[in-house]
Amino acid sequence: MAFSSTIAATRRHVLKLGLLATAAAASPLLVGCQKVGEKAGEEAPSFKGIDLTGAPYGKDFRLTDPDGKERTLADFKGKVVLLYFGFTQCPDVCPTELTRDVEVLRLLGPDADRVQVIMVTVDPERDTPQVLRNYTAAFHPSFLGLYGDAQRTRETADAFKVYYKKVPTGGSYTMDHSTLTYVFDPEGRLRLALRHEQSAADVVHDLKQILAGK
């Protein structure tokens, strides 16, 4: 990614992140008298990520895995899902994100089996099924790459308020894209947006609460 494109994408991301955090703080989005995941008599969870509990978007996806199987959130019921939008030729942000996820699984210990990391490519033109398979496996054997055609990719990104754009670079191109990771609880409900700059320890702090049913 060209340096100027990286800076521009970072500025756009910071602005969007600020707006998202403001919206999350201003609209608790209560279900009845309590938030989803909050049990009567218990304190609400204290997340380090952006609390999206009850958000009206990011309900589901319908994408294809490298084996050609169509996948939706229902396939991962019982697990916490970390959903990230990126692409395999990303030189910095995506590898950093997935490397953090590897550390998250390590820190979770036995609970790592209850977490599924998914990367949705925003570059289906180049990220073929085999390319996706090899890329995610290079980080962790449990990581899963999903893809759609151009229209399905755009529809899915829009459903999650994800920004991405093709940027020409000489004779080729790169992709500017937002860098939040979305977290779903074991019931398939959107709960969190994790910032790119959050540490693995911060992510584990949040996931342990969700795994505990908070």
From TrEMBL:
Keywords, in A-Z order: Copper, Disulfide bond, Metal-binding
Single GO molecular function: metal ion binding
Keyword Disulfide bond in record: yes
Entries under PROSITE patterns matching the protein: THIOREDOXIN_2
Sites where the protein binds Cu cation: 90, 94, 177
Positions of transmembrane segments: none
CDD domains in alphabetical order: SCO
Superkingdom, taxonomy of origin: Bacteria
InterPro entries (alphabetical): SCO1/SenC, Thioredoxin-like_sf, Thioredoxin_domain
Disulfides per UniProt: 90-94
Sequence ranges assigned to domain Thioredoxin in this UniProt record: 38-212
Family: Belongs to the SCO1/2 family.
Name under which the protein is recorded: Protein SCO1/2
Organism whose genome encodes this protein: Tibeticola sediminis
Lineage: Bacteria, Pseudomonadati, Pseudomonadota, Betaproteobacteria, Burkholderiales
